[in-house]
C-alpha cells in the first residue's frame, strides 16, 4: 500500500491562507475541542467562516483539519486567529486522574455484581 504525503496543499495557497505566518498557537493540540461562539460574518476569510460552521458542535482540531483538507499546522494558525477575536472557545482535554483518585476495585466489583443481578 502506497501512502500519500500528509501535506498535499499548494505552498502558495497555504502561504496566502495563513498570511505568511508559520508559527501556530501552542495551545491547540490534536484533540483540543473547538466550539464556535459566533457565526461567520460578511468579508471574513473563507477558511475562518468554514471553521465557524464546522465548530457549531464541539469538534477536535484534527477533525477540523481533515474536513478542510488543510495541514494541522495551518488549521492551528487559523484557530489562533479566531481564538484571539473571541469567535471560538478551546476545550482542552483533562489530564488523566491519578491512580489514588480512582474508585476502589472492590467497590467496582460490587457495582458490577449488582448490575449483573438486575
TrEMBL record:
InterPro entries: DUF742
Top-level taxon in the UniProt lineage: Bacteria
Name of the protein: DUF742 domain-containing protein
Species this chain originates from: Streptomyces edwardsiae
Amino acid at each position: 500500500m502506497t501512502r500519500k504525503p500528509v501535506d498535499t496543499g499548494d505552498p502558495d495557497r497555504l502561504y496566502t491562507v495563513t498570511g505568511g505566518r508559520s508559527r501556530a498557537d501552542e495551545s491547540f493540540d490534536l484533540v483540543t475541542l473547538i466550539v464556535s461562539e459566533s457565526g461567520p460574518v460578511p468579508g471574513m476569510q473563507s477558511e475562518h467562516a468554514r471553521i465557524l460552521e464546522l465548530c457549531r458542535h464541539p469538534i477536535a482540531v484534527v477533525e477540523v483539519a481533515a474536513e478542510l483538507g488543510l495541514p494541522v499546522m495551518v488549521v492551528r494558525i487559523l484557530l489562533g486567529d479566531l481564538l484571539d477575536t473571541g469567535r471560538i472557545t478551546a476545550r482542552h482535554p483533562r489530564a488523566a486522574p491519578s491512580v489514588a483518585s480512582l474508585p476502589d476495585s472492590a467497590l467496582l466489583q460490587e457495582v458490577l455484581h449488582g448490575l449483573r443481578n438486575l
